[in-house]
Amino acid sequence: MFERFTKDAREVVQGAVEQAERARSSSVDAEHVLLALLDREGSRASFALASLGLSGERKQSVRDAVAAARRRAGLSQAETDALAGLGIDVSEIVARVEEVHGIGAMSGDRKDKGWWSGRRTFSRDAKGILERSLRTAVARGDRHIGDEHLLLALTAGPGVPAETLAAHGVTHESLLRVLYGGGEAKAG
């Protein structure tokens, strides 16, 4: 499948691996793909994000939201709200775990452990993003998978990346309008 990736898409995948390494995570997650996309400049995905108002401080806001979700063990805000409806206060659970085990203990990152020297695997969600990007490219009649297909794949399913981007005005529909529908779209 990777032979169909453009240079930009390959750089996003490599950037996701580097994001996982910096976080000392043993696997590459969908959130790492999103963070790698946010670092891109001069590509179709970066153009689409900028067209929807996601640049500068707003990109940092997305990074902060992803970090907050990782602190909640990867739970999306919707999942956190659903648990709250059942009387489960995720913030309280995180606070208690971090009180005993340290800040970020629920993130899955390995900050307090030895350096992970093995090859990082892709989590089920990250693999799903790669597969969905292929299906997106094929459905659009594109011969290659670009970073814009990775971005579209992130917004097409549930989870922290899609929820975070939607909260910042970047939805699957708005991306489709920017990328394929004349270049104009309204945020949200």
Describe it.
Residues 2-188 form the Clp R domain. It comes from Streptomyces spinosisporus. InterPro entries: Clp_N_dom_sf, Clp_R_N. Keywords: Repeat. This is Peptidase. This protein is mainly α and 188 residues long. The chain has a single domain (2-180), classed as Clp, N-terminal domain (Double Clp-N motif). It has ten helices and two strands; from the N terminus they run αβαααααβαααα. The chain has helices at 7-23, 30-38, 44-51, 57-71, 77-85, 90-101, 124-139, 147-156, 160-167, 172-180, and strands at residues 27-28, 121-122. It has a two-stranded parallel ribbon with strand order 1-2.
Can you tag this structure with a few keywords?
188 residues, mainly alpha, Double Clp-N motif, 10 helices, 2% strand, Clp_N_dom_sf, repeat, Clp_R_N, Peptidase
Shape summary:
globular
Q: What does the radius of gyration come to?
A: 17 Å
Distance between the terminal alpha carbons, to the nearest Å?
32 Å
**Oligomer classification:** single chain
H and E order: HEHHHHHEHHHH
Strand content: under 5%
Pfam family, one: Clp_N
Protein name: Peptidase
Organism: Streptomyces spinosisporus
Keywords: Repeat
